[in-house]
Amino acid sequence: MAVRLLRQLALRPGRAAAQAGRCHPLRPHLHTPVQLGRLVNPQYTRSLHPASPSTTGKAPFFEFGSLASYASCDSTPHIGTHFPSPSAISSPRPQLHLADVLTAPNSDELIRDLATLVSHRGVVFFSKQQLVIGQQKELAKRMGQLSWNLPREKTSGLHIHPVSEETPELGADTSVIDSKEGIARADYRQNVRASAGWHADITFENIPSDYSILKLHTLPPIGGDTLWASGYEAYDRLSPAYRRFLEGLTAVHNADFFNEYAQQAGIKIQTTRGAPENVGEDLTAVHPVIRTNPVTGFKALFVNRNFTRRIVELEEDESESVLDYLFRHVAENHDLQVRFKWEKDDVAIWDNRCTLHTATNDYGDAARQGNRVVSLGERPYLDPASKSRREFLEANKAASNGA
């Protein structure tokens, strides 16, 4: 029994799901009660900013059926889907290769469905991908563009990190993730406590990220896993009264430590960072504590220990108490998290509007290297008409039982 348990713990998320009998093609109940398709609310409205009037836009996307023909499995009930090699899960379906998606005849449909899947599941993993940096950038751009459904033109592109140093090979809009150099070392406050590292990418920007794409090409012999947590599930587990309290609040996000690092390293802060609103050296923004993901229409918790400093509407001690609880709420509920064990050339794509993540710095002096591309989305907002993920799934289940 103990040996069997140890073997299961050593499996990567997708394989563990397969061993438990839970690995299967994309599940229909995530889409409609009876088949892959679109479930929309024609009356869905959203506001472009918490202070602006509601504006009717397109309904959120719930359609990603073009991906159902590829080998895949859910990593956990709440977060994570894996597209592994078919042999890893004994699937007759072919493997999904992201490079081929970019040139397929139905490329736009595949990419739109991929973005929708990522926004529903939070993070999606792809094994053994031959995706070069130019293709990685193209995929990030097109995911942001094709999933855009707000009633105004998208003006943001790829993010340029404040302490990014441009290279001829990668450009300024690629972040080097390197255990020795680059962005991973820019936060010189790194702490041995992994719980201190939970964050969503670049929430200190006025226009933060929608999607991030990370490919690791160099790995330590052991360790270096990444964990993601679901902001949807974190919201759903709060009491209704506490949710209502949080929905009236906004929080300050700040990354002054990048300014300090730039000064110590003798480099300049990048003052134009991928969107007209992301300019200057002040790395501070104010966002709602609970936000709506425009792709799904779901509410998500939107604070993180790395960048969220205080809640605007509360006294300092009140703010500290609330944020401390929310940070622990994410870090201590392991069943709203997924842990991914990397292999060479694996790719992870996640939605920063509804997830947080943290690396595991347990590999000593070994090398861990890769490239991350970050697409910029919209100014965060809370739509009062939006629902929670749990409400959506329960309504879907009820509709299915009544069919």
Name the structural class.
Answer: alpha+beta
* Overall pLDDT metric: 83
Overall outline: globular
The CATH superfamily is Clavaminate synthase-like
What is the number of domains? 1
Terminus-to-terminus distance: 42 Å
**Beta-strand content bin:** 15-25%
Main β-sheet, spatial strand arrangement: 3-4-5-15-7-17-6
CATH topology: Double-stranded beta-helix
Q: Count the strands?
A: 17
Q: Which spans of ≥5 residues are poorly predicted at pLDDT below 50?
A: 1-22, 27-56, 182-186
Quaternary form: single chain
Count of helical segments?
11
- Approximate helicity band: 25-40%
Query: Roughly how many Å is the radius of gyration?
Result: 20 Å
User: Which CATH-level-2 architecture?
Assistant: 4-Layer Sandwich
Order of helices and strands: HHEEEEHHEHEHEEHHEHEEEEHEEEEH
Level-1 CATH class name = Alpha Beta
* Biggest sheet details: 7 strands, mixed
Can you give a write-up of this model?
- The model is unreliable at 1-22, 27-56 and 182-186 (pLDDT under 50).
- This protein has a single domain, classed as Clavaminate synthase-like (Double-stranded beta-helix), CATH 3.60.130.10.
- The protein is built from eleven helices and 17 strands.
- The protein has a seven-stranded mixed sheet with strand order 3-4-5-15-7-17-6, with helices on both faces. Strands 14-8-16 form a three-stranded antiparallel sheet.
- It is globular, with a radius of gyration of 20 Å.
- The protein is α+β, with helices and mostly antiparallel strands and 403 residues long.
- A hairpin with a 6-residue loop joins strand 11 and strand 12.
